[in-house]
């Protein structure tokens, strides 16, 4: 049986399209793919994740057919572009678990994930939509975040720090909902932290 850690690692690899069995791309195909990813990242930063895919192809200097051959859907492209951010969040999660109490680590994890998921306009909405679609590449890309949330909740529960009936799915759904609100209201980091802490205070045992 796979451990949670191995599931996290496997999901991260699968979402990036770099699985062990994947056939190496030709040099020109790799350049095209990298150009598309760079153009998408730059475009999402400015226009949000619902920006025109055709515009991304133009910015990357490739034809539409090349973009769709590499990334058949918007979710395919978004899952690939967000992969580095997800890996960075998991690294932060490791550090939180090492340096904070289980309750503090879970609380801070909620704050940081809610903040990071709103890095590009409309990203939280795409994450929420993918929760209900197991076939979506974005669903697969976010599995490591859900798994890490579950691990942190288990640690906090073992320490007697959280209410007994809360589930990891409920916490993750709450995080994505809060992230959507942070995106819509365009709050800054300190205001975002205050809102997430207020919204998640009820998770913790008094």
From TrEMBL:
Origin organism lineage: Bacteria, Bacillati, Actinomycetota, Actinomycetes, Micrococcales
Pfam families, sorted: TetR_C_43, TetR_N
Keywords assigned by UniProt, alphabetized: DNA-binding, Transcription, Transcription regulation
Protein name in UniProt: TetR/AcrR family transcriptional regulator
Classification via SUPFAM superfamilies: Homeodomain-like
Residues covered by the HTH tetR-type domain: 30-89
DNA-binding region(s) from the entry: 52-71
Organism (species): Frondihabitans cladoniiphilus
The UniProt record lists the keyword NAD: no
